[in-house]
Amino acid sequence: MRALDLAPAAPAVMGSRPAGQRRRTVGVAVLVLALAGALAWAAFAPIVPASRDALFEIPPGTWARRMAGDRVEVLPGTIRLTLGINDVLLLRNADSVPQTFGPALVMPGQSFRLPFTVASTYSFACTAHANGQLEVIVEPTPARGWETLRWRLGDWARRLSGKAPGAAA
User: Fold this and answer.
1) pLDDT per residue over 32-89, tens digit each?
2) Helices and strands of the chain, counted as H and E runs
3) What is the C-alpha separation between 29 and 35, in angstroms, rounded?
4) pTM for the full model?
5) What contacts 78, CB < 8 A, 6 or more positions away?
6) What is the 3 state secondary structure string of 95-159?
7) What is the DSSP code (8-state) at residue 79?
8) Where does the pLDDT of residue 90 fall: very low under 50, low under 70, confident under 90, or very high at 90 and above?
């Protein structure tokens, strides 16, 4: 007599997975590759701004509100710029009185452009601030790789939060 073989039958293809699981694995792999590609682009692609100006406007009525005792803060106390990307500070005076920014007197309806060429921290007298001071921090151009990726992520976060480019975090 022959002994009965009670071992379970082997699957047709060893190591095969159900079709749904294979599709899920391929989908995850494609998603991971797309994310890696996006991060590589963000880290190594050059940053090309539409404009190098960081615009800050002194709105109408600022001086009148301040003279009425209102503590008006129309500009951030610290403005951050980045060389080669947004390295020109553009102040627009929409108020009805002249405003002083450093050595410049910005008349109503006029703009004042101040380009920066050296990474450093600058302090200016500014009549648009209640405390009379404005600090501008100019950071060096981010190096390709992690620094560029960190800069882009910070820029996207500022845009999503509605802050002006150059406004300190």
Assistant:
1) 888 877 777 767 676 666 678 888 999 999 888 888 988 878 888 899 999 888 889 9
2) 3, 8
3) 10
4) 0.66
5) 134, 135, 136, 137, 168
6) CCCCEEECCEEECCCCEEEEECCCCEEEEEEECCCCCCEEEEEEECCCCCCHHHHHHHHHHHHHH
7) E
8) very high
The one-letter amino acid at 79:
I
Residues 135/122, Cβ–Cβ less than 8 Å: yes
Distance CA 74, CA 82 (A): 22
- The secondary structure element, H or E, covering residue 14 is none
Task: Give burial (CB, 10 Å; 0-12/13-18/19+) of 111.
Answer: middle
Here the tokens at position 79 are: 């403005």
DSSP, collapsed to helix, strand or coil, labels residue 25 as helix
Taken as a whole, the chain contains a residue count of: 169
- How far apart, in whole angstroms, are the C-alpha atoms of residue 142 and residue 115? 18
Place of tokens 């101040």: 114
As given in the structure block, the two tokens for residue 35 are 């994310």
Q: pLDDT-based confidence at 166, cuts 50/70/90?
A: low
Residue 63's pLDDT is 86
Return the bridge partners of 78, or none: 135
Angle between helices 146-161 and 19-44 (to 10 degrees): 100
